[in-house]
Automatic annotation (TrEMBL):
Domain of life: Eukaryota
Protein name per UniProt: LOB domain-containing protein
PROSITE patterns: LOB
Taxonomic lineage from the root: Eukaryota, Viridiplantae, Streptophyta, Embryophyta, Tracheophyta
Pfam hit, one: LOB
Domain LOB per the UniProt entry, residue ranges: 17-118
Length: 157
């Protein structure tokens, strides 16, 4: 789907198609168009949602107030928020944020439980390895130990 060249009013001198914003707003896309770097003609839905939620003139104003090196991030944030608002008209991205917050809470609880289990296992392991060590010493001290007596000492612990 390369430019067909004979698009209605699209600047006859320039060969590049208008950006998604100018196409939707049916206006001429000039070389200094503020939308063009962020809303390429290949992704028309992104601008459609942003326009629906924020309004093109507000987006225009916001972009001009922001330093150029921050505009890309601002646009991706607006696109995200607009898409979320279209998907969920009541909560928008707040719905996504609160569901992620819930996941964080669940995972933090699991982490605390797992850390407690790890601590318990470590303490248990240290205690049992101490017993084994003392039993090994006991075993080495006695030259001739029968299995039954060793078994008895295990049972008595
Ligand atoms: Zn444009």
């Amino acid at each position: 789907m390369k430019e067909s060249g004979k698009k209605e009013g699209a600047a006859s001198s320039s060969s590049s198609p208008p950006c998604a914003a100018c196409r939707l707003l049916r206006r001429k896309c000039t070389h200094d168009c503020v939308f063009a770097p962020y809303f390429p003609p290949t992704q028309p839905h992104e601008f459609a949602n942003v326009h629906k939620v924020f309004g093109a003139s507000n987006v225009n104003k916001m972009l001009q107030e922001i330093p150029e090196h921050h505009r890309g991030d601002a646009v991706s944030s607006m696109v995200y928020e607009a898409n979320a608002r279209v998907r969920d008209p009541v909560y928008g991205c707040v719905g996504a944020i609160s569901s992620l917050q819930q996941q964080i809470n669940i995972l933090q609880t699991q982490l605390v439980i797992t850390q407690a289990e790890a601590m318990h296992l470590r303490v248990h392991h240290t205690a049992s390895s101490n017993i084994i060590e003392s039993q090994a010493k006991y075993f080495c001290d006695m030259d001739m130990v029968e299995h039954t007596s060793y078994g008895d000492s295990m049972r008595s612990c």
